[in-house]
Amino acid sequence: MVAAIRIHGNGGPEVLKYEQIQIGNPGPGEVLIRHTAIGLNFIDTYYRSGLYPAPSGFPLILGNEAAGKVVDVGDGVEGLSVGDRVAYVGPLGAYSEQRIIEARHLVRVPDGVSDETVAAMMLKGMTAEYLLRRTYHVKAGDTLLVHAAAGGVGLLLGQWAKSLGATVIGTVGSDEKVELARTHGYHHVINYRRDDFVSAVSEITGGKKCDVVYDSVGKDTFEGSLNCLRSRGMLVSFGQSSGTIPPVNLGILSQKGSLYVTRPTVFAYIATRAELEESANALFGVVQAGAVKVAVHQRYPLNEAAIAHRDLEDRKTTGASVLIPS
């Protein structure tokens, strides 16, 4: 028996239950992992609340990413041995001390990168990778706007985009977060609670506006994000922490300058083994080179997952957070 956090129905953080479960042995193509650190992400709250439908029935174990060590391997698994350090972004089930997962989801963790760092950066880091390198190919001289700049993905986007030679503008909700974003690559940071970010972006850019806006906030920022784009600019909507974006008349995109809007997900960008390895290697490369630093700002015992969810939804967290199994 191992400990895990399960939900037996959708709801608030109180539905997260710390329970003992039986997991068995790995089958063909599968690996048994002992988790050492588990990533905490806003998408976890979407599955918990029911905003995103669960891919399977209840009870359900949340969590898409973690780091750990291989405990056992099933038949047909090649390239992995007991004791190997591994990490993954994969199907739900990470909120547990141990789990069985298909080997195809796993990547080896390079030396010099801690388990907490890896667990905190896999989903967020590969999200930053595809946003900057593939959804919109950021290059030197581009101007970006990133909402939630002090969040887990936001802090990675700021550093990585700066290393690519882009001018990076961020929005945050407090003066404390302004300073945090500035230390993570942002050239300009706007406190949206005090200043109108559309006007601020226009002033910062001399009226030229942005090539791309990365928006994980959703309902509260959608229209303003469109107004921050130059003609033929792109809005990348990759989250909705403030709520679902209401129906949109596509004609507004032509009125505002033939704009592009996309709603990507990380799993569509790591759908093949080759894409997964390319994304992970690009992420590990910028971290090992020192261009991107991943700071774990919050650590919660696994049995305090409900507290972690409340803090995340109340926007009390900054940067990355992890759950630590006992």
Automatic annotation (TrEMBL):
Start and end residues of each Enoyl reductase (ER) domain: 11-323
Protein name: Quinone oxidoreductase
Source species, domain of life: Bacteria
PROSITE patterns: QOR_ZETA_CRYSTAL (PS01162)
NCBIfam families: PRK10754.1
Pfam families assigned to the protein according to its UniProt record, in alphabetical order: ADH_N (PF08240), ADH_zinc_N (PF00107)
InterPro entries according to UniProt: ADH-like_C (IPR013149), ADH-like_N (IPR013154), ER (IPR020843), GroES-like_sf (IPR011032), NAD(P)-bd_dom_sf (IPR036291), QOR-like (IPR047618), Quin_OxRdtase/zeta-crystal_CS (IPR002364)
Keyword line: NADP, Oxidoreductase
Transmembrane segments: none
Entry keyword Transit peptide: no
